[in-house]
Amino acid sequence: MLTALAGGVGAAKFLSGLVAVVDPASVTAIVNTADDDEFHGLRISPDLDSVTYTLAGAQNVAQGWGLAGETFATMDALDRYGVPTWFRLGDRDIATHLFRTQALAAGAPLSEVTARIAAAWGLATRLLPVTDDPLATRITVRRADGREETLRMQEWFVKERSESPVVAVGFAGAETATPGPGVLEAIAGAETVIVCPSNPVISIGPILAVPGVREALVARRDRVVGVSPIIAGAPVKGPADRLMDPLGIEVSCVGVARAYADFCSTLVIDSRDASRVAEVEAAGVRAVVADTLMTDSRIAAALARETLASVA
Amino acid sequence: MLTALAGGVGAAKFLSGLVAVVDPASVTAIVNTADDDEFHGLRISPDLDSVTYTLAGAQNVAQGWGLAGETFATMDALDRYGVPTWFRLGDRDIATHLFRTQALAAGAPLSEVTARIAAAWGLATRLLPVTDDPLATRITVRRADGREETLRMQEWFVKERSESPVVAVGFAGAETATPGPGVLEAIAGAETVIVCPSNPVISIGPILAVPGVREALVARRDRVVGVSPIIAGAPVKGPADRLMDPLGIEVSCVGVARAYADFCSTLVIDSRDASRVAEVEAAGVRAVVADTLMTDSRIAAALARETLASVA
After folding, report:
1. B1-134+175-312: which CATH topology?
2. Which residues, listed in sequence order, are joined to residue A269 by a DSSP beta bridge?
3. CATH top-level class for A1-63+94-132+177-312?
4. Distance (Å, rounded) from C-alpha B61 to C-alpha B71?
5. Which of A81, A102, A117 lies closest to B95 in CB terms?
6. Are A299 and A180 in contact (CB under 8 A)?
7. Cβ-Cβ contacts under 8 Å, B90 against chain A
8. Is there a contact between A41 and B117 if contact means CB atoms under 8 Å apart?
9. What is the pTM of this model?
10. pLDDT tens-digit profile of A95-122?
11. More exposed terminus of chain B, fewer Cβ within 10 Å: N or C?
């Protein structure tokens, strides 16, 4: 049994490579929920949906989020009503949100709703929200006039295109959140725990912030392997650099190694970062060099294979 | 000022004729809300939306409901989740339902939400839900095995295609519902009150069932004129015959006249029913003969003009 800590797009790509080389039913993904939000009364879970849609082969590859062949008739029609439509929900995607919103309103926990959505997409892989409790990334930015403002993750990321300079990141609800059903067991019982190439601050960070999760990982440190989401000093996609740097995390595989060192024994870094092996290892993390830029499914599968081999 | 009691499609056609011959801003439509329901967590108001979309010129004329050029991507995608999708919501229509559902959840009464939707569609005509309180048509049918079952209106009408034989009709909530803001005033203050050609049992019936409304109409009887929705013994569209007959209302303009006689002084009947003028008048209702089959906007406008002239 394998367990993976997952954010959105990067994790989804890695997981699709992983399930190509191992039995998909042997994989449990513990997924970040701190990007979740509500728009137009609909409960959205961007990372859970990215992983679900990608594992189902239904994702929009070019766009990096949502479903392939998606249409936006509802969003276009919502413009008429003068409500904010900067967070674009596709028509087919809305079906997922309607289903989730109604199931949650009926009292089902997110973990159960997630399992039903995954089943509806025919996934054999188990997806576990890191928590069924409220957990929300809050990003404090500095405005041009020096004033600080705290934004919801999607406000900063989508509405403000990650442009507003970050001064702090917090996870509302983290103190009282409890790990979702099966989360700690999946870490404790896994042969290997993989930290997918996801944003260390706002994808992996919230998972670690749920009390008990980091401790569970520390206890399995020898069997925890990460894949650096930073290649040659830059994220493959997304705003990791704009979050790591202000928080004092070097935007490099070395910075990732230092951030993960207490719970992660091994880090897969990109071949473009081969010169930094010694620095990674100086952080107490064994470095393994591989091609981590998953430009196609063959590379993703090879990366998954090498990641598993690195702690074999 | 003119006030109209309105159900869905027939009323919407009539009203579009009316606003072609009088100032749209002089018209108030009191609209049935007892067909309202909730699907996938979305609050739908079929009659309010039919009137809104039709007055905005955006309705699907061929289909008789919903928006022209509508797509159904969300509904098709919902099928995956195993939820009932027999009530088809179009993608653009869903925007209206999302807006309404969220506004209601935020505490706005339906009357206020309706005004915002009408404004968004640029309507000058005032649309008033008959009540802001819960009001729901319940249709009791007899099953093949003799057993009786009570259905929500949309279950009977859409899911069961009006095929199950009706034994009774009720309006849940009617006893405690109060007329919406402006409803009684619109009846009391109108120069003329028009009962649109809508289903007497489940479109006009619930409006009359809200305490105070029928009394307000009775007080204005001389200025109340109805348009028969029954032509030559059959409804133009919809299941009026399947509801009137089991409830002992003759499926004819004469049956309509008898049902409306206590609050309606004049009934416009179709030229195909000219032979029944004496029977209508025997019910105490003055009969006016006109072409009531609104196959195009010109006929709808002419009917509106003749309806107004009938009580001039």
Report:
1. Rossmann fold (3.40.50)
2. A289
3. alpha beta
4. 15
5. A81
6. no
7. 73
8. no
9. 0.95
10. 999 999 999 999 999 999 999 999 999 9
11. C
